[in-house]
Specification:
The protein has 303 residues and is mainly α.
């Protein structure tokens, strides 16, 4: 029982990372109708940015960790910076192609991803070598029913849960959320109703980038190493989570992230080489039964 609980905690920890990143994929797809394959690299930017921001606040460290107020400031700056980069990416690379065939936007997204991975690698103050991520939270260990749970894991899971609930409230209970839903249904009709479509899409990219930064901070806090390619495979798995839950559905992205995280941890415990493949196996099985994902709905396109 203790072992199962321990694996479940690890699964929730990893699932939080996948869910936060999958939300960005599903929001952009739901509103813009494109797959932003560069979204995983925003996680890398958020984690690397946090590394450098933490160095600026290093004088506030006490016994190797930061006070919670400073941690909050560091996370907020990383979220704002990553969100700003996401908005700039949309404005420069995606907006001019909005009315072009989707394949062009898809290829552009792949190119943007390659640029975001290799440009920091070429910068002398970043480079290709991995870096040790700073300790943000004071490490404490608790024993629950025989399982060891660290304070970092608790903070990660709570932070992810609060962030996802805040996003769900924003989309379903605020004016800008209503505008997002309107643009996702029909951009032209939303524009005729006085909604600034470009502004709504920019806010969508900003929120997705900010969530990716939180996801990167959570992952780097649990596995304290950052490098320029870390967003590549994490982005792939989070995309799988978004499709698994039903891409375009916020609740589906959350559910898919946690299912994938828990499944990977248990599969890795059984066979260390099986962990990465289990997500794709689950995806294939789910799509055979529900082609739109667990919570997705099939949409008939009129021509």
């Amino acid at each position: 029982m203790a072992t199962i609980l321990q694996y479940l905690v690890y699964g929730l920890q990893l699932g939080s990372v996948y869910a936060l990143l999958a939300l960005g994929y599903t929001m952009v797809y739901g509103i813009v109708g494109m797959i932003n394959f560069a979204h995983g690299d925003f996680l890398m930017i958020g984690a690397l940015g946090t590394y450098f921001i933490a160095q600026l606040f290093s004088s506030y460290q006490i016994d190797g960790t930061f006070p919670m107020l400073i941690v909050g400031i560091i996370i907020l700056i990383a979220m704002l910076g990553t969100g700003g980069i996401a908005v700039a990416t949309e404005a420069i690379a995606y907006r001019p192609l909005r009315n072009k065939p989707r394949m062009i936007a898809l290829i552009t997204a792949v190119g943007v991803s390659m640029f975001l991975e290799n440009f920091p690698r070429a910068l002398p103050f970043i480079g290709p070598n991995p870096r040790s991520f700073p300790t943000l939270f004071a490490p404490k260990t608790f024993n629950v029913l025989g399982a060891s749970i660290t304070s970092t894991q608790i903070i990660m899971i709570i932070l992810a849960a609060v962030t996802m609930m805040a996003l769900y409230f924003m989309v379903n209970g605020t004016k800008i959320g209503g505008q997002m839903r309107a643009v996702s249904m029909d951009k032209d009709a939303a524009s005729l109703m006085g909604i600034n479509v470009n502004r709504v899409i920019s806010i969508t990219f900003f929120v997705g980038g900010a969530l990716a930064a939180v996801s990167g901070i959570c992952y780097a806090s649990a596995y304290p190493q950052v490098d320029v390619y870390m967003g590549s495979w994490l982005g792939n798995m989070s995309f799988v989570a978004a499709v698994l839950g039903g891409i375009g559905d916020i609740r589906g992205a959350m559910l898919g992230g946690f299912i994938l995280g828990i499944a990977q941890i248990f599969a890795t415990a059984l066979n260390s080489t099986f962990g990465y493949a289990v997500g794709f196996i689950i995806l294939i099985v789910i799509l055979l039964v529900k082609p739109a994902g667990i919570m997705g709905k099939l949409v008939i396109e009129k021509v």
